[in-house]
Amino acid sequence: MQPDSLLFPIDKLRFSEKDGNLYIYDVIRMQFVKCTPEEYVRQALINYLINELHYPKELMSIENEIFVNKQPRRFDLVIFTRNISPLILVEVKAPSVAINEKVLYQLAQYNYVVNSQYWLLTNGLSLYFMHYDTNTNKLVIKNQIPAWQDIK
Asked: How far is residue 142's CA from residue 129's CA, in Å, rounded to a whole number?
């Protein structure tokens, strides 16, 4: 992990060590989980969404199972509207994993099932916030996440 190079602040992350393993506190599941590079990025992102952009944590869901082409898969994070419809589908990768067409395709497959309004791809070093503009028939990509009050 390279904490200084992440796009998201890490000052509110909580860690624990047990039996030589590092754990990170997940504010959504309210428990410590193994701190893999991907989990580190996910928790930094979640803390950024909650503390800086004011997304309500009660509208977030982590690693729920979905079926893509009859195969079980787990999405990384979905943020819902207050009406409980999918607002943002998030795919998180470890910093060592490049964000490329393969990752975008994975997100598109997941969204075929989830049907969220927006997509977010990040490896903690780069970030792509997207939505499909039906008026122009184009994918709109931004490098920043809107605050909750600007998107909900």
From this structure: 5
Instruction: Give the mean pLDDT of the chain.
Output: 90
Give yes or no for a contact between 57 and 27, defined as CB atoms under 8 angstroms apart: yes
CATH of domain 3-151: 3.90.1570.30
pLDDT in tens, 120-133: 999 999 999 999 88
Q: What pLDDT score does 88 carry? A: 96
CA distance 124 to 37: 10
pLDDT band at 3 (very low <50, low <70, confident <90, very high): low
C-alpha atoms less than 13 angstroms from C-alpha of 114 in its C-beta half-sphere: 30
37 phi-psi bin (left φ>0, alpha ψ -120 to 50, beta other): alpha
Q: Which residues pair with 74 in a beta bridge?
A: 65
Q: What is the DSSP letter of 121?
A: E
**Cβ neighbours of 131 (radius 10 Å):** 15
